[in-house]
């Protein structure tokens, strides 16, 4: 982004209050990969002292939104990105800070081609949630759509 354009992290922090509430920190954000970090915060712990499941869901969903904006931001004048559905699996106990890494599950060019053809494309975003030692504590798939503006 240029000096006059806000980063995707800045845009999400400005428009999505939960990003600010959870103090999510943005790492790498490209059209191929988005990484967000949830710091260890006692106010958002669960009953075993790790990050609450809802906080991890929000972290992963926010990572998916970041990659969607990076991949399809140039389409915003003609379509609105919307999450359609999500599925999350918690695999291991998460303690301390956690990181969500999102990747597109379908080539961006195919999604745009479907939009160009008059469709309302759907595409998955896969997110891996890891703790500080690198162990995967959760995985999430969010299906997004680009809803054409009417």
From TrEMBL:
What is the superkingdom listed in this entry's lineage? Bacteria
- Gene3D superfamilies xref list: Hotdog Thioesterase
Q: Which InterPro entries match?
A: DUF4442 (IPR027961), HotDog_dom_sf (IPR029069)
Tell me which CDD domains the record gives: PaaI_thioesterase
SUPFAM superfamilies, per this entry? Thioesterase/thiol ester dehydrase-isomerase
What name does UniProt use for this protein?
DUF4442 domain-containing protein
Species: Streptomyces luteireticuli
| Species classification | Bacteria, Bacillati, Actinomycetota, Actinomycetes, Kitasatosporales
